[in-house]
């Protein structure tokens, strides 16, 4: 990696101005006012998937092609990586063929090792620790419906998982208040709260979902069992954090609902909420396409 390589690994590692620039660029592309000149013509993106994906896979492929480039999709088990070739050697070799690497994997360390040895930008397509691409789509969806997110209050109710961690990063970078309600056993890494504090962020950890959503502008949740989690006792721990109409009624009257999908109706969210008028989930999913085009353009600028 060279000092000038623009990796998109986590929101805490990228300047606020750059992230805001990507959101604005994504919105312009969505309106058809930018990106129509195929700026990534002749560029190739390799996508490594060690976990399943619908949205990330399809939106990156379509986005790259809309910008004039092309993709190679690699399932982890099909690569020599799956039978012991090192991440470092894989990074060095892929860098000789493609212009950018997107990786979805388990341990964050595998992603950072890929970035360390690749000479092309590496994009985090989700790890056990974070999911930064999703947050870019979520911020855009909120702002399209409710205006600037700065100074607003977002409430998380559910597992303190990889999405919750990226919401913590986003709250500092985009300047909004974040209340996370989750079981004590499933809270996010305390280092994330320390980081937010050190940056002057406004992130609160609670164990009461009603207190978390009170007068919030947005309520967010995610599945109770993430890829790679084992089920043990999660349903019992998490059922008080389910987002239903009663919980939504404690938020502001015009509060919106976000969920990165895939969803499990009747578990983390009821059908009445996710399929109801306050849910932005389809715009949120669509925005993966627009925001990732902006991320690709930023990485390959
Ligand atoms: N939200 C999201 O990342 O979806 P996929 O797992 O389908 O890519
Ligand atoms: N927390 C979920 C997000 C899926 C997009 C998971 O990691 O499975």
Give me some keywords for this one.
single chain, 301 residues, five-stranded parallel sheet, four-stranded parallel sheet, 9 strands, globular, binds phosphoric acid mono(formamide)ester, binds norvaline
Let me know the largest β-sheet.
5 strands, parallel
DSSP helix fraction: 40-55%
Helix-strand sequence: HEHEHEHEHEHEHEHEHHEHH
Distance between the termini: 16 Å
The computed structural class is alpha/beta
Beta strands, count: 9
Q: What features would you describe in this structure?
A:
The protein is of the alpha/beta class and 301 residues long. Helices cover 41% and strands 14% of the residues. The protein has 12 helices and 9 strands. The strands form 2 sheets. A 5-stranded parallel beta sheet has the order 7-6-5-8-9. α7 links the parallel β6 and β7. α1 crosses α12, α3 packs across α4 and α5 packs across α12. The longest helix has 19 residues. The mean pLDDT is 97. The site of phosphoric acid mono(formamide)ester has 8 residues, from α2.
List the helices and strands and how they pair.
Layout: H1 16-30, E1 44-49, H2 55-66, E2 70-75, H3 87-97, E3 100-104, H4 108-117, E4 122-124, H5 132-146, E5 153-157, H6 162-174, E6 177-181, H7 190-198, E7 203-206, H8 209-213, E8 218-221, H9 234-238, H10 245-248, E9 256-259, H11 271-274, H12 281-299
Parallel strand pairs: 1-2, 1-3, 3-4, 5-6, 5-8, 6-7, 8-9
Helix pairs in contact: 1-5, 1-12, 2-12, 3-4, 5-6, 5-12
The protein binds phosphoric acid mono(formamide)ester and norvaline.
Question: Summarize this, please?
Answer:
The chain is α/β, with parallel strands linked by helices and 301 residues long. Helices cover 41% and strands 14% of the residues.
């Amino acid at each position: 990696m060279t000092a000038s390589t623009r990796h998109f690994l986590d929101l805490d590692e990228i300047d606020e101005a750059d992230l805001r620039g990507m959101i604005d660029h994504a919105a312009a592309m969505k309106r058809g006012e930018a990106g129509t000149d195929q700026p990534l013509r002749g560029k190739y993106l390799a996508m490594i998937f060690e976990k399943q994906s619908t949205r990330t896979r399809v939106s990156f492929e379509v986005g790259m092609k809309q910008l004039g480039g092309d993709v190679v999709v690699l399932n982890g088990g099909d690569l020599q990586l799956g039978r012991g070739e090192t991440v470092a050697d894989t990074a060095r070799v892929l860098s000789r063929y493609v212009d950018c690497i997107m990786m979805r994997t388990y341990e964050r360390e595998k992603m950072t090792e890929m970035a360390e040895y690749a000479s092309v930008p590496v994009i985090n397509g989700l790890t056990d620790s974070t999911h930064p691409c999703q947050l870019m789509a979520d911020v855009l969806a909120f702002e399209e419906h409710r205006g600037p997110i700065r100074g607003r209050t977002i409430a998380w109710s559910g597992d303190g998982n990889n999405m919750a961690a990226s919401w913590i990063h986003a709250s500092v970078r985009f300047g909004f208040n974040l209340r996370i309600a989750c079981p004590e056993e499933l809270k996010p890494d305390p280092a994330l709260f320390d980081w937010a504090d050190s940056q002057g962020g406004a992130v609160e950890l609670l164990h009461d979902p009603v207190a978390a959503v009170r007068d919030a502008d947005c309520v967010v949740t995610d599945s109770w069992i993430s890829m790679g989690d084992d089920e043990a006792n999660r349903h019992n721990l998490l059922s008080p954090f389910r987002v239903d109409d009663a919980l939504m009624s404690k938020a502001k009257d015009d509060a919106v609902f976000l969920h990165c999908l895939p969803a499990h109706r009747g578990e983390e969210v009821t059908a009445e909420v996710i399929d109801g008028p306050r849910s932005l989930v389809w715009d949120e999913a669509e925005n993966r396409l627009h925001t990732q085009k902006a991320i690709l353009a930023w990485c390959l600028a």
